[in-house]
Specification:
The protein is an alpha/beta fold. The protein contains eleven helices and nine strands. It has an eight-stranded mixed β-barrel with strand order 1-2-4-5-6-7-8-9, surrounded by four helices. The chain binds ligand C2E and magnesium ion (3 copies). The site of ligand C2E has 22 residues, from strand 2, helix 2 and strand 6. Keywords: Membrane, Transmembrane, Transmembrane helix.
């Protein structure tokens, strides 16, 4: 009986594995058609300048509305898109959509800083900068209004390519942010050599702020370091008023997180740019 049970477990384990592979394969297959079927949407997460509590920018975040599976997280499909190369057409669509949204807001009298996440496959492409310039022209977006986010790990593993992309992006007048800062290694060294405009403190450091002394010290240090290196610093994952108060005490430049707002569809942004400041508890502002 025990042997039978064990065979059963082995078979079940094998079947689970097969199912997982089939799922990944299906996702990969569905991904190929998703752009054409217009299943992607962008949401925008507001971020504030800590000093006055005003929404001055948004980060564009891609979502996949799968017809059967519902909404799929970018954490699940971006890696598959990167493996298959599908990230290239997808990223072009994302940039186009974000820039076009920027100019719609501009027509409505809002000039927001727009952050767009970059994939390593994108910056490896030779035509990357030309494409960015062409799209900026097409939608009449001032380059300084766009902030491209590159993660610290992409920078670490693709240093030469990234450095070149960062330089070129800044040469054409765009801003560059170091995303998920603190999660890689040799952070301090990279911070000195990368000519970025913004550092985004990874939300893993924020989780226990201000209760965890170590995390508190780390965040304080990144804020001070950024100031010495003349970079703006934005804290991610701000989920409570206590976190925001801490950031204000530390003179952190910007903040982004669920306490301020979740990522929302573009039509919700105008109201958020007007109401924040009153909405947030006054003692934190
Ligand atoms: P990221 O660039 O670090 O984006 C921030 C992520 O943190 C978003 O998750 C956002 O919804 C989430 N977040 C924001 N505030 C809070 C908070 O207070 N608490 C918590 N727990 N989470 C918060 P999302 O949208 O699932 O995106 C995950 C990652 O997927 C992004 O991390 C980025 O690396 C990637 N990604 C998203 N959109 C794009 C895109 O358009 N292109 C590329 N290449 N990557 C993207
Ligand atoms: Mg980002
Ligand atoms: Mg991040
Ligand atoms: Mg992240």
């Amino acid at each position: 009986y025990a042997a039978k049970e064990s065979v059963h477990h082995t078979v079940q384990f094998y079947l689970d594995h097969v199912h997982q592979r089939v799922d990944a394969f299906r996702l990969e297959h569905d991904l190929q058609a998703a752009l054409e079927k217009e299943e992607f949407v962008l949401e925008y997460q507001p971020r504030i300048t800590v000093a006055d509590g005003k929404v001055t920018g948004v980060e564009a975040l891609v979502r996949w509305e799968h017809p059967e599976r519902g909404r799929i997280s970018p954490l699940e499909f971006i890696p598959i898109a990167e493996e298959t190369g599908y990230i290239l057409p997808l990223s072009s669509w994302i940039m186009e959509e974000a820039f076009s949204q920027w100019s719609k807001w501009k027509e409505d009298g809002m000039e927001l800083q727009m952050a767009v996440n970059l994939s390593v496959r994108q910056i490896e492409e030779e035509q990357f900068i030309d494409r960015v310039e062409a799209l900026l022209g097409k939608y009449q977006v001032p380059p300084a209004s766009i902030e491209f986010e590159i993660t610290e790990s992409v920078l670490m593993y693709h240093l030469e390519t990234s450095l070149q992309a960062v330089r070129e992006l800044r040469r054409i007048g765009c801003r560059v942010a170091l995303d998920d800062f603190g999660t890689g290694y040799s952070s301090l060294n990279y911070l000195k050599t990368i000519p970025a405009d913004v550092v985004k403190i990874d939300r893993s450091f924020m989780k226990e702020i201000p209760d965890n002394a170590q995390d508190t010290a780390i965040v304080e240090t990144i804020i001070r370091l950024a100031s010495v290196l003349n970079m703006d610093v934005i804290a991610e994952g701000v989920e409570t008023d206590r976190m925001l108060s801490f950031l204000k005490e530390q003179h952190c430049f910007g903040a982004q997180g669920y306490y301020i707002s979740r990522p929302v569809p573009p039509q919700d942004i105008p109201e958020l740019t007007q109401s924040t400041g009153q909405e947030l508890p006054q003692e934190t502002l």
